Protein: Fibrinogen C-terminal domain-containing protein
Organism: Cryptolaemus montrouzieri
Amino acid sequence: MKAVQIESVQNMKTLQEMRLSNYLPEISKDRPYRHQRLLKKHIIELEKNSKALQKENQQIKTEMLRLRKEIEILQKNDQTENDLSDSNSIEDYIKSNSLHPINNRMDEMLTNLTVQQNQNVENIANITKQLTNFDKLHLSVLELLENVESIEFKVDNTFPDIRKEISKVEVQANEAKAELNQLKEEMSNSRKSVKAIGVSVSNLQDKNAEDHRFLKEVDSRVQNLIRSSSLQNSKLHDHILKAESASVDLNATKSTVLLVQELKSFEKEYQNIINKLPYDCSSVSGPNGIYLISPGGGEPILTNCEDGWTIVQKRYDGSVNFNQNWNNYSNGFGSATGEHWIGNRNLHHLTKNNCSMLQINMKDIYGKYWQANYNDFRILDYSNGFKLIIKGYHGNASDALDYQNNMEFSTVDNDRDISNTHCASNYEGGWWFSHCQHANLNGRYNLGLTWFDSSRNEWIAISNSEMRIKPREVC
């Protein structure tokens, strides 16, 4: 019985120690537990079981005391009674009579106590496991809360920066709106300017038409002067022949002298007109358009002038056949108002002072613009086959013309290239061919207008081309 009491007391102490030990983790003031209702419920049930166990132990103690008193009474009775001589008989009497139900009851109570104690131990172990799981869950929740708090802290810290960025974006949006409004105003102004330019262009076109008519009249007058001079020359020769065949006639001699003087006056007037013409477009003072220039070689030519540049070649629709012979390429063909070639003789006269630069403007079949500029451009004379001398490239179209440098001009009837094939015949146009070409702007329009871009190692298919020359500022 004492052993049972001692074991029950130890169980109570163990329970108290478990409540104070790590099985029931201490609640922190700084980070209190959340979701502890189930834990508290188990603790309350454990306390109830402990109290019930204490009551049962108390009952056992009272029963033990009562049994002790009964035993003492029985011992006193045994002393008074002499029938029973020794203690073994008293014990047999107690066992057989009054102590037998008490022992049965005590055994039953001890069994119940043992069962209850085992249940309490199991409950304590389960509660311990649950408390451990709750502790782990609580730690995970605390970590989660700390992460949430750190995220909230970061959000609170970054929120001013976000507001600043939003303010910057709003400022940029307002600036963009202001720029857009300004662009709209500029667009409206540009439209007005375009309308004004259109009016000016129409006026210039009218003026150019008048100038063109005037130039035609001047050209017709020059042609008339040439024809009249040739007619006068023929008449003079006839008079001379008549004078030689017939007798010397003083009146005929006088008329011959007058005709010679008249012819000289016509030639002087024609030469004065030619001398007054500009050498090239850089000497023209006036708006862009068609002008009569006299680069040399006796006859003036009509050319298109733009900002001091003399247009020497132009192609845009294939309306002019560029598969011409040597003489046509030498003298030039086409119209200055459309597709044309100014002529190799005129190119020689315009560049013979070794002070000309070349600009080539091109547009490919996809609408992209390309440009090739050469600071030094020169064409030699007829005796050198109108050889090309070129250097000083810059632009975005690649230096394709360098492949044709120092090459003589070739046409369908005059093959001067260094290839085994007839390049001019194959590509149907005159050009400075070598083996055969890297650049060719005079070939067949829908097939042969090409320019090789060495930076991309690709051919550029040209739809529009324009070659223009201009004297350098410093020679």
User: Anything to note?
Assistant: The first strand starts at residue 289 and ends at 293. Residues 99-245 form the longest helix (147 residues).
